[in-house]
Amino acid sequence: MSELEDLRKEIEEIDENIIKLLSKRFQISQQIGKIKKEKGIPITDENRESKVKEKWITLARKYGIPESFVESFLTMIFSYSKLYQINPKSKRRIVIIGYGGMARSLSSLFKISGQEVVITGRDLKKAEALSSEFNFVTMSVDSALKWGEIIISTLPPSAYFSDFMDETYKKMKAKIFMDITSSKAKIFKELEDKSIKYNFMYLSIHPLFGPYLYPVGEKVVLIPSKTSASIVRDIYEFFMDNGLVPLISSLEEHEKAMSVVQVLPHFYLLALSSSIQELSKELGIDFKKFETTNFREVYKIINRINEIKNVILEIQEHNPYADKAREFGVRELNNLYTQLMGKKNDALHS
Ligand SMILES: C=C(O[C@@H]1C=C(C(=O)O)C=C[C@H]1O)C(=O)O
């Protein structure tokens, strides 16, 4: 055998060992998951993750492996390790109304946690396309509402004022109903009123993650309404059991928080996106050719934002603190501008 072949053989053996060890690590993680379930503690333990990461970085230095490799590898290990810990106490009958990115993300989560899911909506062909991805079932809206116990609507805010939803509310008696919108000010009261009128339990939720698959360990905000007091505990446990980290909030606190974590950064990023285009055009520069590591990361986020621009603009429009957030954004940008321009002028005059 040539030297090249010998070395490749050695690599293959090492690869097998890596896989064996990973499998062992995931099995242990599964055991840890069972203990956490018994004790009612959440799957994600950020303290522990920091400790593990510290250890990995020390070892990486010791063995001469780049820290950046270890960091991205470990991030993947954590997220798959947590997948192995999902093991819900009970199976619930969940109906998802809608078939967009968030419906897909929630479906992926419920698939690994073994929930029973039916996908429905106005367009049953689209519902069927999503169902088949996860081997779930599609039903007409009427049948789905009869069958289901927990109804999660992934529709945009405007949909809650449509004839379609008007008909749907009437068929949800005694069911648990959730919306997942980012800006709730406009719809919360409407849905709360409808839940009183038609006797369903309305618990507003906001998954704090984008349309990604297997969002294990991510947060979901729960905003109780007048009709959901009796089920908040149950749904809190349900989400924890399915691998998310639930967080209870009031409507007002949630809207304020979203003006800080969504409205403001999205506002800057949209402006950053267009100013990058404009400035590079003005200067005749192909910025992709010169991108730095930081720029690459920022641009990834800009691309993600542009992909869901309609949702982003909806949040800008509906969040009640959006005007304030944008005012602060512009004010601080101007302050920085004045400060930096001032420095430049000082330098010129000295
Ligand atoms: C395995 C655990 O669960 C999660 C996964 C971890 C891991 O894979 O190392 C660490 C912390 C937790 O977020 C644990 O708590 O130890």
TrEMBL record:
<dbReference type="GO" id="GO:0006571">
    <property type="term" value="P:tyrosine biosynthetic process"/>
</dbReference>
<dbReference type="GO" id="GO:0004106">
    <property type="term" value="F:chorismate mutase activity"/>
</dbReference>
<feature type="domain" description="Chorismate mutase">
    <location>
        <begin position="1"/>
        <end position="89"/>
    </location>
</feature>
<keyword id="KW-0560">Oxidoreductase</keyword>
<dbReference type="InterPro" id="IPR028939">
    <property type="entry name" value="P5C_Rdtase_cat_N"/>
</dbReference>
<dbReference type="GO" id="GO:0070403">
    <property type="term" value="F:NAD+ binding"/>
</dbReference>
<dbReference type="InterPro" id="IPR046825">
    <property type="entry name" value="PDH_C"/>
</dbReference>
<dbReference type="InterPro" id="IPR036263">
    <property type="entry name" value="Chorismate_II_sf"/>
</dbReference>
<dbReference type="InterPro" id="IPR050812">
    <property type="entry name" value="Preph/Arog_dehydrog"/>
</dbReference>
<dbReference type="InterPro" id="IPR002701">
    <property type="entry name" value="CM_II_prokaryot"/>
</dbReference>
<dbReference type="GO" id="GO:0008977">
    <property type="term" value="F:prephenate dehydrogenase (NAD+) activity"/>
</dbReference>
<dbReference type="Pfam" id="PF03807">
    <property type="entry name" value="F420_oxidored"/>
</dbReference>
<feature type="domain" description="Prephenate/arogenate dehydrogenase">
    <location>
        <begin position="92"/>
        <end position="350"/>
    </location>
</feature>
<dbReference type="Pfam" id="PF01817">
    <property type="entry name" value="CM_2"/>
</dbReference>
<dbReference type="InterPro" id="IPR008927">
    <property type="entry name" value="6-PGluconate_DH-like_C_sf"/>
</dbReference>
<protein>
    <submittedName>
        <fullName>Chorismate mutase</fullName>
    </submittedName>
</protein>
<dbReference type="InterPro" id="IPR036979">
    <property type="entry name" value="CM_dom_sf"/>
</dbReference>
<dbReference type="GO" id="GO:0004665">
    <property type="term" value="F:prephenate dehydrogenase (NADP+) activity"/>
</dbReference>
<dbReference type="InterPro" id="IPR010950">
    <property type="entry name" value="Chorismate_mutase_arc"/>
</dbReference>
<dbReference type="InterPro" id="IPR036291">
    <property type="entry name" value="NAD(P)-bd_dom_sf"/>
</dbReference>
<dbReference type="InterPro" id="IPR003099">
    <property type="entry name" value="Prephen_DH"/>
</dbReference>
<dbReference type="Pfam" id="PF20463">
    <property type="entry name" value="PDH_C"/>
</dbReference>
<dbReference type="GO" id="GO:0046417">
    <property type="term" value="P:chorismate metabolic process"/>
</dbReference>
